[in-house]
Write a structure and sequence with these properties.
elongated, alpha+beta, single chain, 2 helices, 3 strands, 84 residues
Length: 84
């Protein structure tokens, strides 16, 4: 009976304001058959340092985060801070 753990990023989504949502699945396998699964999710904001992320996540962020998207996101943060 061999138990193994397999982690992979199975979903990357970009939402309207440029936020990138990442989902990682962890599968536990017993003799090659999945016996358990769980998910870990996190978000990345436009302009955030993603150097510690997987290459596919970095590529999506680079494509999605144009200077205009980053500027609009920062402007929205500032408007929210000021109570607008």
């Amino acid at each position: 009976m061999a138990l193994t753990e397999n982690k992979e990023i199975d979903k990357i989504e970009v939402v309207g304001n440029g936020i990138v949502q990442v989902r990682q699945v962890t599968r536990i396998l017993k003799d090659g058959s999945e016996i358990a699964r769980n998910y870990h999710r996190w978000t990345l904001a436009p302009g955030q340092d993603v150097s510690d992320q997987a290459a596919n996540v970095q590529a999506i962020c680079q494509a999605a985060w144009t200077p205009e998207v980053i500027a609009a996101y920062q402007a929205q943060l500032e408007a929210n801070r000021l109570g607008a």
